[in-house]
């Protein structure tokens, strides 16, 4: 497979067994069997899928955190048995996996997601923008926005509330991300659907974007689903409502490298990145 070529992606919008990483890992592995049968290259699972998310005390947060440590290059150096079982399954089945979890390492609690490749490589992203909600109340924010170079292409991972500040997705796009994956735990609530922001992030950066939410109830919270996969124009490639299920889309990641649109040569052309005026944006980082 040529990096940045055609990729078939699946988002598993599933419920989670709270505080039982083995049960969640076992179900994930069964899901990979289905995905391989469908020719899927990249299987995506929700935020905190391996562990659950909804806790109200530090003690409860400590209880669900699973150990996953990494080095300065985001490479996982130590992981619990459940994570290693998912890694082994990805290797055996020849499939890429993105999955979220409530984590702990020598620096404390964090909200993380893994990029697992069939070559055995496993890297970690740590959520950088934290709301005052659930496990995130007790987590330490990440300090980096890496773009992972894989055999499929350049992949960025954000988690849930990371969607809100548009700068996070933009930085990943400027670093070459062809697709951004968003494992999330959107609860049921009134207000604008997150789909509006997901479509905007795809369109404004001319990248593919995949949001993977969960469903079900957990410790007083209900989750809304509404996972979707978007093309570089913000168009929906596949989506789902509030029920459990899997969505699948095939995309050509090389399309995300072309930021220039030519409608009528020399008359109607736009350049999503070429038109930028960074000198006007200093307040964003002051």
| Overall number of strands | 18
Biggest β-sheet description: 8 strands, mixed
Order of helices and strands: EHEHEEHEEEEEHEHEEEEEEEE
What is the CATH first-level class name? Alpha Beta
Query: What is the annotated CATH architecture?
Result: 4-Layer Sandwich
What is the H level of CATH, i.e. the homologous superfamily?
Carbon-nitrogen hydrolase
Q: Provide a count of the helices.
A: 5
SSE topology:
Layout: E1 6-13, H1 21-37, E2 42-44, H2 58-64, E3 66-70, E4 76-79, H3 81-93, E5 96-105, E6 108-116, E7 122-126, E8 147-149, E9 154-157, H4 166-174, E10 179-183, H5 195-205, E11 208-212, E12 215-218, E13 221-224, E14 228-230, E15 236-239, E16 245-252, E17 260-264, E18 268-271
Parallel strand pairs: 1-2, 2-5, 3-5, 9-10, 10-11
Antiparallel strand pairs: 1-16, 3-4, 5-6, 6-7, 8-9, 11-14, 12-13, 14-15, 17-18
Helix pairs in contact: 1-3
Walk me through what this model shows:
This protein is an alpha/beta fold and 286 residues long. It has one domain (6-284): 4-Layer Sandwich (Nitrilase/N-carbamoyl-D-aminoacid amidohydrolase), CATH 3.60.110.10. It has helices at 21-37, 58-64, 81-93, 166-174, 195-205; strands at residues 6-13, 42-44, 66-70, 76-79, 96-105, 108-116, 122-126, 147-149, 154-157, 179-183, 208-212, 215-218, 221-224, 228-230, 236-239, 245-252, 260-264, 268-271. The strands form four sheets. Strands 1, 2, 3, 4, 5, 6, 7 and 16 form an eight-stranded mixed sheet that branches. A hairpin with a 5-residue loop joins strand 14 and strand 15 (236-239). Helix 1 (21-37) packs parallel to helix 3. The N and C termini lie far apart (42 Å).
